[in-house]
Amino acid sequence: MKFPESLNQLVKGQEGKDKFNLKNNQVKKVNTLLLLAVAGVLIMIFAGVFSSQSDSSPGVSNQQSDVEIEEASYSSSIEAQEKALSTHLEQVLGQVAGVGELVVTVNLLSTSEQELAINTSAIVKTTEEKDQTGGSRIITEKNENGELVLVKTSQGGQEQPVIIKQYKPEVQGVLVVAEGAREIKIKAEIIRAVETLLNIPAHKVHVVRKESR
Question: Do β-strands 205-209 and 171-178 pair in parallel, antiparallel, or remain unpaired?
C-alpha cells in the first residue's frame, strides 16, 4: 500500500467509508496537511543529525590547528636562531687570516630561554577541627600567587619583564666549509674559534675544505 493511500484509509476507515463525514475535497486537504506535517518532522530530524555532526567536528579541528601553530612557531624560531648564529660565525671566522671564503651551518637542539623574575606571595591558614569524640585535627591551607616583575624602560616608558637568567641555545653541531681548511693549522684555528664562540666541545665542530672556483 502506498503512503497517500494509507492516509486515505486512515481518514475513511477500513471499509472505505468516511469516518469524519468529510467531502472529497476536504479529504484531499487533510491528506495534504498530513503530508506536510510528516515532511516537516523528517526535515527536523535530518537537520538535528547534521547539526550535531557539524558541531562535534570544529573542536577537534581547532585543537589540531592550535598544535600546528605552536609547532610552526617553534620551528620558525629555531630556524631563525640557527641562521643568525651561522651568519655571526661567518662574519667572525672570515676575519681569520688564511680562512678565505667560507659557509657555516649551525644545527640547534633547542632555542634560547629566559628565566623571568616573579614576585610570589603565600598565605597560610591553619584551622583546628574537633569531633564529637574529643579528637582534633589540624588543617593547613596554603595559597600562593605569582606576579611577573615589570620595569619601565628609559625610552618611551614601556614596561618589560625583569630577566634573571638567560640560557643560550643548545648546539647539536656546526659545519664549516672553508677554502683555508686545506691547511691543518687553519683548520685547527677554525675549530678553536668555534669552540670559544659557542662554548661547545671540538667533536661537535666539523671543518671541511671548500672547493676553489
Answer: parallel
Q: What cell was used for 127?
A: 584551622
* CA atoms of 191 and 182, how far apart (whole Å): 13
Q: Which residue from 123, 145, 206, 124 is spatially nearest to 172, judged by alpha carbons?
A: 206
The verdict on domain 81-113+166-209 having CATH code 3.30.300.30 is yes
- Structure confidence by residue, pLDDT tens digits, 120-151: 888 888 888 877 777 788 888 888 787 878 88
Q: What ranges do the domains of the chain cover?
A: 3-59, 81-113+166-209, 116-164
Angle of helix 3-12 versus helix 24-93 axis, rounded to 10: 140
Owner of C-alpha cell 620595569: 151
Pairwise CA distance, residues 183 & 105, whole Å:
21
Residue 133 has, within 13 A of its CA and on its CB side, a CA count of 3
Rg (CA), the chain: 39
Which residues face 125 on adjacent strands?
141
Cβ–Cβ under 8 Å, residues 157 and 111: no
Q: 3-class SS at 38? A: helix
Grid coordinates representing 156 are 618611551
Q: What is the mean pLDDT of residues 82-102?
A: 94
Q: What are phi and psi of 18, to 5 degrees?
A: -80, 110
pTM value is: 0.50
Kindly report which listed range (5-9, 17-21, 71-75) carries the lowest average pLDDT score.
Answer: 17-21
5, with CB counted inside 10 A (0-12, 13-18, 19+), is exposed
Position 28 scores a pLDDT of 64
